[in-house]
From TrEMBL:
Top-tier EC class: lyase
Keywords in alphabetical order: Amino-acid biosynthesis, Aromatic amino acid biosynthesis, Lyase, Tryptophan biosynthesis
The name this protein goes by in its record: Tryptophan synthase alpha chain
Annotated source species: Marinomonas pontica
Gene that encodes it: trpA_2
Known EC number: 4.2.1.20
Length: 268
């Protein structure tokens, strides 16, 4: 059983929901990322999404775009991202790690080579924002043979027919984008999220994670009432940006200070 599947099954048995933070690998320096990942686990993260920096992150707002720029300027590339996951796995073999990014760097690396290397590093899932189901046939096999879950995005504008097609292809969990637009771009309508999540439950048995627009403990708790996972990104990445010139331990503490109240409010 994959780490992701085991994680969600364990949470369901305990009556809890997954807290899934996102940070960009290598921001502000590759040497900082493992320390920050450990801080997220300490604050109650169940799954960690790690962004692979890309020069044109079209689904992301300015906060994560700037994080990608800082990461690339610090010398982060795909090989460095995988080295970071390998280092994290030296002390943590339980927390699922999902790599999130875009097709171009993976195509350059080679799908099969990337899938093999990701497996060896200890990656559990991959979310490629611009990989459409129509173009995923060969790619899916590379990841499936390496037992890596391929996670897909669904949005408020996804038609029921297309949602069913995506859910049939996805494994691990599906990521419901709660707002129209890019990351960090809009206020969250929890009632609308609940309606869409309820509709998705009719077509998939996969866990449903909800992201975009979750900025505080109150919103995280509200979303956790209808979703299986709460995905938190821009607020964490913004905290990294605000403290980018400080020591990595200081940044790690800042991330814990944001995430821990979300964990506590969700569990309450």
């Amino acid at each position: 059983m994959s780490r992701i599947k085991q994680c969600f099954e364990n949470l369901e048995k305990s009556g809890k929901k997954a807290l899934i933070p996102y940070i960009t690998a290598g921001d502000p320096s590759p040497d900082f990322t493992v320390t920050m990942m450990n801080s997220l686990v300490n604050a109650g993260a169940d799954v960690i999404e790690i962004g692979m920096p890309f020069s044109d992150p079209m689904a992301d707002g300015p906060v994560i775009q700037l994080a990608c720029e800082r990461s690339l300027a610090a010398g982060t590339n795909i090989k460095k991202v995988l080295q970071i996951i390998t280092e994290f796995r030296q002390t943590n073999t339980q927390t699922p790690v999902v790599l999130m990014g875009y097709l171009n760097p993976i195509e350059f690396f080679g799908y099969q080579a990337f899938a093999n290397a990701a497996k060896n590093a200890g990656v559990d899932g991959v979310l490629l924002v611009d990989l459409t189901p129509e173009e995923a046939t060969d790619v899916v096999e590379c990841f499936r043979e390496n037992e890596i879950d391929l996670i897909y995005l669904l949005s408020p504008t996804t038609t029921p027919e297309r949602a069913k097609k995506i859910c049939d292809l996805a494994t691990g969990y599906v990521y419901y984008v709660s707002v129209k637009g890019v990351t960090g771009s809009a206020e969250l309508d929890v009632n609308s999220v609940k309606n869409h999540v309820d509709s998705l439950r009719a077509i998939t048995s996969l866990p449903i994670g909800v992201g975009f627009g979750i900025r505080d403990a109150k919103t995280a708790a509200a979303v956790s009432k209808c979703a299986d996972g709460v995905i938190v990104g821009s607020v964490l990445v913004n905290a990294i940006a605000e403290n980018k010139d400080r020591q990595k331990e200081y940044i790690a503490d800042a991330l814990e200070a944001i995430l821990l109240p979300m964990r506590n409010e969700m569990d309450a």
